[in-house]
Amino acid sequence: MSGRQGVDLGVIALPWRAREFYVTLACLAVLLAAFTFGLVAGSSRMGVGDVWATLLGSGTRSFEFIVFELRLPRVSAAIGVGLCLGLAGALTQTFSRNPLATPDILGVTSGASAGAVTAIVIGGGGYSVGASLLGFGIPVVATAGGLIAAAIVYGLSWRQGVDSFRLILIGIGATAILGGLVNYLLVRAQLTQVTAATQWMVGSLSGVSWASVWPMVVVLAVMLPLALSQSAPLTINQLGDEFSTALGVAVQRHRLLVIVAAVVLTSAAVSAAGPVEFVAFVAPQVARRLARTPRPPLLASALVGAALVLLADVSARVAFGTEIPVGIVTALIGAPYLIWLITRPNLKERA
Amino acid sequence: MASSALTAVRVVRVNATLSLGVALLVVILASLALGSNPISPAQVVQALVDPTNDPDGVVWGSRVPRTLLGLLVGFCLGVAGVVMQGQTGNPLADPGLFGVSSGASLAVVLGAFVLGHNSMSAALFLAMIGALVASVGVFAIATLSRDLANPVPLAIAGTAVSALLNAVISFLVLTNQSSLEAYRVWVVGSLSGRGLDGLPPALLVAAVGLALALVNARSLNSLTLGTELAQGLGETLWRARLVGLAAITLTTASAVALAGPIGFIGLTAPHIARAIVGGNHFRLLPASGLIGAITLLGCDVVGRVIGGQAEVPVGVVLAVLGGVAFVAIVRRTKLAAL
């Protein structure tokens, strides 16, 4: 096709427009800069040179401790959360053909919230059920809640195959039910537990360690190639299910793969940082406008998400010193940027 | 054949209208008869006929206002949902999409919880101002994009503004314990303890909003054909958008001011109404409003009954019961896509 280049590895073929390619490269550059900045910023003074020297294995012992034990886990967690949510958001918005659809709609975020808040509220209240829930740890409970909820939403949407419109509507219902349960728990709980639960639901990176990073690395290693392998069917499916079937896409298998990828990516991110939902909405929209593509570009969306979460976390640390939850800063940076992109009149919108 | 099919459609519609009317009557009666104060139906009837014979003022002081409130809020949200989904052409659009709910919430959190202006009329006023500022902001952003024909920037701008406002709300309540205490109750949505004093101004605002929604019905019908065809049919796009936005803002703002940010009805009632009466907005608007009113009041009654003395807020009942019912309906019927 004219105006397109790409790589073709058989299963994974990545055709792209020139602009999409350069935007992806630019996102990568921004991410790298933010990565360096995130490692430099902090109370003990280290220059850019020190940081890279340490990363490449020739730093002093104290630098090694600061970089590998203190800063790198948090920076990696921010990147991982952003990559997962950006990619999951792009997948969801594309397969549902709806820019407002985030992985929330699959039930995964609200299920995770319901699990985590139940553990925090009931566990903090000293009941044995809650205490045993808390014993697993919030990340495990949240992941389980999210996966179970998503499986139920998918199962309920099945009627001789899953139609994406019905899936969205069932997702709305499931999100409402779980949200109602969360609200009920919050109305009845002690204020200290409400604070803890609200903090978790806003999304925060304080307290992440390598243990929260590794699951995301594993998930990304599996799901990123899977998502990219579905890139061509996703494009074809924009024309509708009948067209896709006629063009040789196994629609139901393709849809299941995309949903599984989105759900697993989201729950990995949520278990590490809580539901930073806004990233999954904003990153694909920003990437699409930067790359000027008809639908969110998968790789660029993931990179924009990573850059956004990392920049938000670092700038909150530098500017305020105190811990402001990353979920708040993400919205404070991401929303105005998206609004600015919308108001640039030379960019025509496509539905 | 064709005429018998038409008759069938008409019969379905008459049946649907009848059952909506019956359901409305049932929830109103239930709302007047049931509550945490155990008084017999006979006493309720006596008090309704003769206001001086009202035991502890339960009927006129609490049940009647609460019933009216529930009907008004539910109706407003149902109508606002239809206008919002029609304007954006998006089945995921709820009345809060243009930042109306989050704007109102932020104003209430700031004014009532942080600064302490804690009265019903203050909350009402604050919610109105917040809602207006937010929706005007969203409309301005969409206008700057110079692409009013396309509903997508409007929806995206609304979501971005809502997220921004919600982030500020989260920050405020997380740094101020007493705000969090008040906010966690308010945000769920409830009809309890409102009284009649806030109702007249809200009713006025809501009435203007509902009238504008009806005015917008013709434009909404043409907009479902796509903006180009709508313009071909003589629709002035900016006027259609402005009227729709004003209708959404006024109805949603009065609902949020009275009962807190209840999102679920505006999102789901239009889908149910569309399945029952079809896509014509002259029928869709009142049908969705009625469904909203019935659902909200019905869920409020359930919340009063199941909680005993500590009643369950209507927002919770609505989300759980309404959610289950919605899932069941979506599984049974083939819902019309927008």
Radius of gyration of chain B: 20 Å
Q: Roughly what fraction of the amino acids of chain B lie in strands?
A: under 5%
User: Helical content of chain A, roughly?
Assistant: over 70%
Identify the CATH architecture of chain A. Answer: Orthogonal Bundle
Tell me what the structure shows:
The complex is a heterodimer of chains A (351) and B (338). Chain A has helices at residues 18-40, 48-55, 61-95, 108-124, 128-136, 138-157, 164-188, 191-202, 210-229, 231-237, 241-246, 251-273, 277-291, 298-320, 326-343, and strands spanning 4-8, 13-17. Chain A has 351 residues and is mainly α. Chain A is globular, with a radius of gyration of 21 Å. Chain B has helices spanning 2-33, 41-49, 58-88, 100-114, 120-144, 151-175, 177-186, 199-223, 227-232, 237-259, 264-277, 281-307, 314-332. The model of chain B has no long low-confidence stretch (mean pLDDT 83). With 338 residues, chain B is mainly α. The longest helix of chain B has 32 residues, at 2-33. Classes of the chains: A mainly alpha (351), B mainly alpha (338). The interface between A and B is large, with 57 and 59 residues.
SSE inventory with pairings:
The complex is a heterodimer of chains A (351) and B (338).
Chain A: E1 4-8, E2 13-17, H1 18-40, H2 48-55, H3 61-95, H4 108-124, H5 128-136, H6 138-157, H7 164-188, H8 191-202, H9 210-229, H10 231-237, H11 241-246, H12 251-273, H13 277-291, H14 298-320, H15 326-343
Helix pairs in contact in A: 1-3, 1-14, 2-3, 3-9, 3-12, 3-13, 3-14, 4-5, 4-6, 4-7, 4-8, 5-6, 6-7, 6-12, 9-12, 13-14, 13-15, 14-15
Chain B: H1 2-33, H2 41-49, H3 58-88, H4 100-114, H5 120-144, H6 151-175, H7 177-186, H8 199-223, H9 227-232, H10 237-259, H11 264-277, H12 281-307, H13 314-332
Helix pairs in contact in B: 1-3, 1-12, 3-8, 3-10, 3-11, 3-12, 4-5, 4-6, 4-10, 5-6, 5-10, 6-7, 8-10, 11-12, 11-13, 12-13
